[in-house]
Fold each of these.
Amino acid sequence: MRRVVWPAAAAVLVALIVFEVATAGNGGNDGRPAPPLPERVLQGPKVSLADLRGHPVLIDFFASWCEPCREEAAELARLSRSAGHGAKVIAVDYTDREDSARAFLARYDWTFPVLSDPDGVYGARYGFSGLPTAVVLDREGRIAATLRGPQKLAALRRVLAEAGAQRG
């Protein structure tokens, strides 16, 4: 019985990931204030929503075990090095082992702040259902967009520029 359950569970997980990637796109502009960020720091300085106010922000939820997250990793590294208009890039490592997450950061040369959400509490507060998910905040700290699935640099730049242009 055990041999049948494990492959079936793995197939369901893969199907959910494929569905989430296939339905990738904007989750809309709900305008609600962003929930708090994790306090646990994996890399860089501690970051809070108060620190980010006044800037458009991209918060990328990822995990080292997530293949679509690996597809997007280089795009995020490029975005962080070229973010304009005072835009900020941060990431949240979601339900990952710390050693695996640190190896991911080194492999993809991420130099921006990365916070840790080992239990998935903060991801649940942001209300997403798959990885990677990028949440874009406007200058007032409101959710301007949610992007599901791996994104390209041009799309990330566009949504950050739009969030920076929004006025409350």
Amino acid sequence: MNSFAFVVNLSTIKQLKELSPAMKMLPDSFIKPFLKSHPDFKIFRVKKIRSIRAKEIEGYFILSLPPKDGLQENKDVTADKLISAAAIAEKLEARIIGIDGFIPLRKKLKLPLTTGIALACWSIFEAVYRATKARKADLKDLDLVIIGADSALGRLCARKFSEHVRQLVLIDTKDLPAAVNNSDIIIKLDGSHNGNLNIFELRPKAVICNYNCKEEKGYSRRDIAIINAGQIKLPFAEKLEVKTGLWANTVSAPLAETMLLTFEERFVNYSWDENTNLDKLEEIADIASRHGFEVWVPEAPVL
């Protein structure tokens, strides 16, 4: 049976407890000595993930454990950690390794790599399209701003949306100009902070789409739609040994992309660098449909 590996970086004990049911009931005073006496990674096996095409695969979650000295680390997996995790994945006979987000590497891994950028971008586009459709609006008549456009995902989203909206504004996470308040759609990527984003100053019926960001407060503004992108619903209920923190039977877009490539036996570097193109978006969307994986946007159902 073909298998994949997926790396999850943990920077705090709280995150470890959220993802690992076995750790949730243990006190921190027990977990800290555990971390000091164990390897830097913890592995969970995922058995028999199914496709509607009667295919089965299996995989491994490789959890990069919190630092032993208790210090906080960057939320992203580092290149060194990824190389170490890939060596573990090879020993487990995984055919491809996935991570959440782009990582510059000094050298290519022996295993094929995907970052999930293609399916993440597609899920964001689909979420925004559904939300505007539900409001009986057309993207070509709307202005859109991307906060966090300085990332690889942000640049790919910019290329995708530029073909469909009236006006596109790109800004980084350090500065939120007045353009945000003059846009119909605001896309926030990968932890971009609120800054001076004031929900009460936005255009009427604006749509906020979050990807890996905390939800906005201020739901008293009932005309504003706040949606969360990046969730993919699996075709069958699966028992995952690691909690995803998402809706039941849903996984993140990067994890879903890794699964889909395994189903297709596409053991190649896929969305692994900043040159990931728009053709990959269409291709991965077709692959997802073929295997019964669905972009899941509970705030904006399929119309």
Amino acid sequence: MADASTSQGRSPSERLRVLAVASGGGHWLQLLRVTEGLQDHDLAFATVDPSYAHDVPGCRLHVISDATRWNRLLLLKLLFEVAWIVLRERPRVVISTGAAPGLLALFCGRLAGARTIWVDSIANVEEMSLSGRQARRFAHLWLSQWPEVAAAAGARFEGSVL
């Protein structure tokens, strides 16, 4: 990742504040691929593993709880963490590749007036993920990485990132 604190071909007024959010593993790797074309914007990331900071040098990284729908208390804590990050970062765009942290980020981002983008994981080859199906309500742009899944769900297909 390029240093987000420098203007790389864009004037400061043209740079968008982008918050990119994903849980760990494959979701994180896909998020990195999606954000490769956004280096000249003001990028901040939120994820569950502090060791991922080495993947995004020069960008702000917020570490959040790793919660799933199976732990309601931790999920509530995650909601407050994500809401605080959205309030602090004031992004114009929130993008996620999943799962629960990304869904909550889209929800909070939409409430804050940000444009929201959901890219469902490439691992979901037969149907949209549960988080992806829920994200439809909050995403301005709702994408699947499989043309068949996109067609069946009513999402857009613009290619895959892996």
Amino acid sequence: MSNPNAAKSRPPKKSDIKALEKRWGAKVWAIGFTGVPSLLIRGQNRLGLSPVQLNVLLQLLDHWLKRGNMPFPAKKTIAERMGMTPRYIQQIIKELEDDQFVKRKFRKTSVGDWDTNVYDLGGLVRKLRELEPEFTKAK
């Protein structure tokens, strides 16, 4: 028997989007939204994520607009959003990389200067897929 709470691989219905827009208000909704699996929020402790690590992942997810295009926000942007220093954000991203949630890919501009990193979130996706059966079974 299928679990009605299990993740479905379907795009959201227009009626679902409209309901969310109505909940938050058109002006708030027009600024944008981020798709975050509930499993990331519910499984935070099980995944071993600190509140700051989870927030950094959410910031990265906010920049992940298309499946094939990994996010590349500046650490300064994330730091400003969170009220922290870019150096601290760099440390948190290093922790997330060490724990295999993200993989940094270094980039250079066309003139050879360092550019923002690209963050491959494949590790986060893998970890959530591995955790899913545990949560599905608990339901």
